[in-house]
Write a structure and sequence with these properties.
This protein is mainly α. The chain is 82% helix and 0% strand. The radius of gyration is 15 Å and the shape is elongated.
């Protein structure tokens, strides 16, 4: 029997990867003693980059 929800299950690993990419650098910057603006800037840059990478992977795969 085929899996009824292959698309949502396939979307979870990229979403986790983007969340990790956006969450880890700001957390590391805070632990290193960065000012408040640097973690926010890091997250603001990493989120679009992560989404771009995931989008390119999906487009190039098909």
């Amino acid at each position: 029997m085929a899996d009824p929800e292959p698309i949502p299950k396939a979307a979870v690993p990229p979403a986790v990867a983007v969340a990790g990419q956006v969450g880890r650098p700001p957390a590391a910057a805070v632990r290193a003693g960065a000012c408040r603006r640097q973690p926010a800037l890091s997250a603001a840059v990493n989120l679009p980059l992560g989404v771009l990478v995931i989008t390119l992977k999906m487009v190039l795969r098909t």
